[in-house]
DNA sequence: TACAAATCAGTAATGATTACTGAAATTATA
DNA sequence: TATAATTTCAGTAATCATTACTGATTTGTA
């Protein structure tokens, strides 16, 4: 039942920590294959899921139907580019009090919130 | 190229307008079958998509991996119950200025934002 | 070193959604 | 009103992301 070390998991973790672009499972798979050509896509999915449960990663859903992952597990917001699909970190302060504000007009327990922006990113503006 | 009337689309539209629980395509399909036993799931998907493009519906993604639809196309927020999966409207005011606030620290064009809360809804608190 | 348990690679299965096809319904026109 | 043109439909097959399964390999421990 105990957690055992695995090179693959370690490689996935290191890759994720080196990234700020919130890769999907498939994107991780493509990159990890440089180092581990035989790694299986299932292994990537399983370890991303495991690392998320361990609190080392955060699963991010920005509305494109794909699961993105982020090694920065602090509360922060994201931007999704409708043009190129990039997921970018927002620098604005997170609004911690918003859960309390929302609670006042809601019958239930609010545990968390997710705020995602979308539009056109800086790189795509010239093209559009 | 012109849009033609269809009973099925009209039925889907009316069903959606009678609902406040943000049904998924499958849920719409199940209900519409009472009236149209032969309707196809593909027809439901196609018309939900079409009605969304026409601006009569709004597609909502609350992070459960399913597409929910809402006949209330105004800007408002939703709550997702981690216990029963219900998607519930929030009564709080929408923060229109938040796009401007976010724009100040972001290089790109922010067109919209999506704010979703999650936790345990009123009906599920007694059980938990 | 040897055993038990976790992890793996490879592959099959799942579930939501989309695409395809020939038939039926709707609209425009004669 | 009949006909032709075009959209929409039902039914089904295909796609895509993700998850589950299986027998072989790794890892931790005695």
Descriptive overview:
The structure is a homodimer of 128-residue chains. Chain A is α+β, with helices and mostly antiparallel strands. In chain A, 33% of the residues lie in helices and 21% in strands. The first copy, chain A, contains 4 helices and 5 strands, in the order αααββββαβ. In chain A, the strands form 2 sheets. A 3-stranded mixed sheet of chain A has the order 4-3-5. In chain A, strand 3 and strand 4 form a beta hairpin. The first copy, chain A, is flat. The relative contact order of chain A is 0.14. The mean pLDDT of chain A is 96. At the A-B interface, helix 4 and strand 5 of A face helix 4 and strand 5 of B. Chain A binds a DNA duplex (30 and 30 nucleotides) through helix 1 and helix 3.
List keywords for this structure.
homodimer, alpha+beta, 4 helices, flat, about 35% helix, DNA-binding, about 130 residues, two-stranded antiparallel sheet, three-stranded mixed beta sheet
Largest sheet of chain A: 3 strands, mixed
Give the chain pair forming the largest contact, with residue counts: A-B, 36 and 36 residues
Oligomer: homodimer
Q: Beta fraction of the residues of chain A? A: 15-25%
Radius of gyration of chain A: 17 Å
The parts of chain A where pLDDT drops under 50 for at least 5 residues are none
H-E order of chain A: HHHEEEEHE
Mean pLDDT over the residues of chain A: 96
Give the end-to-end Cα distance of chain A, rounded to a whole number of Å. 53 Å
Count, helices of chain A? 4
């Amino acid at each position: 039942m105990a957690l055992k070390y695995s090179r693959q998991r370690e490689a996935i973790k290191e890759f994720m920590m080196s990234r700020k672009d919130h890769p999907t499972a498939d994107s991780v798979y493509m990159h990890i294959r440089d180092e581990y050509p035989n790694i299986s896509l299932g292994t990537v999915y399983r370890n991303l899921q495991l690392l998320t449960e361990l609190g080392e990663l955060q699963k991010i859903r920005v509305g494109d139907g794909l699961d993105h992952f982020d090694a920065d597990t602090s509360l922060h917001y994201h931007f999704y580019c409708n043009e190129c699909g990039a997921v970018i970190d927002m620098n604005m302060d997170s609004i911690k009090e918003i859960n309390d504000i929302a609670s006042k007009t809601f019958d239930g327990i609010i545990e968390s919130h997710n705020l995602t922006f979308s539009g056109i990113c800086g790189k795509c503006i010239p093209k559009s």
